[in-house]
Amino acid sequence: MLSKSRISFIKSLHQKKFRNEHGLFIVEGIKSVTEFIRSDYEVQFIFHTPHTSPNLLNLSRNIKAEEVSLSELEKISTLTSPKDALALVKIPDDGERQLSEQDSVSLILDGIQDPGNMGTIIRTAEWFGFKQLICSLDTVEVYNPKVVQATMGSLSRIKILYTDLESFLSKNQAPVYGTLLNGRSIYKTDFLAKGLLILGNEGNGIRPEIQKYITHPVTIPRFGEAESLNVAIAAAICCSEIRRRE
Amino acid sequence: MLSKSRISFIKSLHQKKFRNEHGLFIVEGIKSVTEFIRSDYEVQFIFHTPHTSPNLLNLSRNIKAEEVSLSELEKISTLTSPKDALALVKIPDDGERQLSEQDSVSLILDGIQDPGNMGTIIRTAEWFGFKQLICSLDTVEVYNPKVVQATMGSLSRIKILYTDLESFLSKNQAPVYGTLLNGRSIYKTDFLAKGLLILGNEGNGIRPEIQKYITHPVTIPRFGEAESLNVAIAAAICCSEIRRRE
């Protein structure tokens, strides 16, 4: 039985303020929980129903765990229909999130706000083998439960760094690609071995103060009349175009 | 002032059952409403706040309209934060939705369930100049307010046909592309001038009874470890790959 105070502690992690205070976030579903156990993340506690997989139990032998009923899981879940397992995972220290040596092109997000878009971008970038994502400080928090859910476990395999983009870009020497309205067709763009590719906010695109660092503006050609593409779709096409050249 | 019975009539259109019964669906936001007025759709009634654009008023001269307060708009809106305008639009008769002569490749959706995915696929397909989408009968209803919203107005410029896919495909002579796990890399696939491209359900992919009609299985190459791509992302990459060859 989960005590009232534990329920209220876990529910507090539904909010950013308490995630930051306690340094923990929530991952749900056996598949995602399993992927976090296998990753560099530190899984601190697992709640699972009696019907959980033996595989998860086996993997989590060294992790504190507790069996709960589905109705108890419902009390702590961030989902309308909770899944079979919920884990509390440690938010990495900033020190563990230093930028690695860039391999090929790294993605930069300037102010993505929608958690579903953010999660889908992470899932897609990981599919295409991108190892890290650099985000402006006002980009939606990656440990938001809706972001975590939409990454479908891919968050466990990609490094996310939040930083002041202006200061970051002012020190950068590599070519900077960015999606703008009047850039070169992305189909005809040569991506150099190392570089950065910037995607902007859903409504406003890339901020002017960030645009000025773009050395290679690129555009996804339009064949119909739609005014814009969803940013996760634009990110996917950019990732695909970068990889198809390799 | 909106009467209680009108409010309850409009609210009934939030549900599929009553949309079908009355042959009407809801479009919200000045931008989308304007695009529907300019399209082949028949806009039957517009509710707008005092702050609406003169452009919308001008365009809608021949359409019945009523000025309502924001709090009245909130009562009939499908959105948590309603926008500036809400229109009732006529659902086209099946006769008006006959399949056109195929130009290049046509997209087929087999059982897409998530309204956000459906809306994003429509928005993306329209960006890439696709004129029609063929959907299995169990694909989410396109007049669902969440689908309409996610299309960002693009629904007004693309024809959506629901049909029994097995019967449709059994009569088809053109090559049939479909996204499967072990197909040819989409980067290396030549898309013939006319053809069909099938995308499947979020969890289960393309049904086996539909898979058997695929003459050219294609796969989006994976560079990381993610188990799958979101279907709207896969659709976008397919659309982009088809167009980049033209």
From TrEMBL, chains A, B:
Q: Which InterPro entries match?
A: Alpha/beta_knot_MTases, MRM3-like_sub_bind, Ribosomal_eL30-like_sf, rRNA_Methyltransferase, SpoU_MeTrfase, tRNA_m1G_MTases_N
- Species for this entry: Hufsiella arboris
Species classification: Bacteria, Pseudomonadati, Bacteroidota, Sphingobacteriia, Sphingobacteriales
- List UniProt keywords, sorted A-Z: Methyltransferase, Transferase
An example Gene Ontology biological process:
methylation
State the family named in the UniProt similarity comment for this chain: Belongs to the class IV-like SAM-binding methyltransferase superfamily. RNA methyltransferase TrmH family.
MRM3-like substrate binding domain span = 5-87
Entry-linked SUPFAM superfamilies: alpha/beta knot, L30e-like
tRNA/rRNA methyltransferase SpoU type domain span: 105-239
Molecular function (GO) terms for this protein are: RNA binding; RNA methyltransferase activity
Going by the entry's taxonomy, the superkingdom of the source organism is recorded as Bacteria
The name under which this protein is listed is RNA methyltransferase
